[in-house]
């Protein structure tokens, strides 16, 4: 699962990672991004779209996928993550998996680990050892009711089984895509399921690190560097 993440890297670092894309220069650092908030993402442009998005530009999407056929947008509250193994089967994700994929910008994420003898879980911050930003594999949708002037663009983060480092913390992890997979994931044309599935694998544990942080991060309203500060467990 991925229920909170960060995007606090400066423009230079983001530009180096997403050098083929138009990255805004005024992104504010965010240390505690939570479901239902807007998240920075780069979406592909399906060939059947009447009004396509800019496939080279970072835009903002509501975190919590709202399928186009949904009657109530609140369904998105339960759609913050999508399991990689069942994307082509689940009605909520099947169409988006074929046609609407995106890169969700991040530079770390949180997981909550069970601690023996403690009723409260310990928050852990997970990032690349290089501390560089990265892209999470995502899906996106457009939803609009009859009484809305503008449609809602929403997204979900795809998860997969954990790598060796993270399996001690949680049984799932978000799919982190390597840079050389960005264009393939964002292809406008419908891709074979086998091709897409080959990209949805655990990221190398040798390139990642994890450390405990304080329960300050538990409160979604807290958004400061304190969220990612190392915390010593006594």
Short description:
With 234 residues, this protein is mostly beta strands.
Category by helix and strand content: mainly beta
The geometry reads as globular
Biggest sheet record: 5 strands, antiparallel
Determine the fraction of residues in helical runs and give it as a percent range.
Answer: 10-25%
CATH topology: hypothetical protein yedk fold
Averaged pLDDT: 93
Strand order, main sheet: write it out.
2-1-7-8-13
Q: Show unreliable segments.
A: none
Beta-sheet strand percentage?
A: 25-35%
- Number of β-strand runs: 13
Order of secondary-structure elements: EHEEEEHEEEEEEEHHE
The CATH architecture can be named as Alpha-Beta Complex
CATH class (first level) name: Alpha Beta
**In angstroms, what separates the terminal alpha carbons?**
27 Å
Counting copies of identical and different chains, the oligomeric state is single chain
Q: Rg to the nearest angstrom?
A: 17 Å
SS summary, helix count? 4
Structure keywords:
single chain; 234 residues; hypothetical protein yedk fold; five-stranded mixed β-barrel; 13 strands; 11% helix
Q: Explain this structure to me?
A:
With 234 residues, the chain is mostly beta strands. The protein has one domain: hypothetical protein yedk fold (Alpha-Beta Complex). It is built from 4 helices and 13 strands. The radius of gyration is 17 Å and the shape is globular. The protein starts with a strand and ends in a 22-residue tail after the last strand.
Secondary structure topology:
Blueprint: E1 4-7, H1 11-17, E2 30-33, E3 38-43, E4 59-63, E5 81-83, H2 91-99, E6 101-106, E7 108-113, E8 122-128, E9 134-143, E10 152-160, E11 173-174, E12 176-177, H3 182-185, H4 193-197, E13 208-212
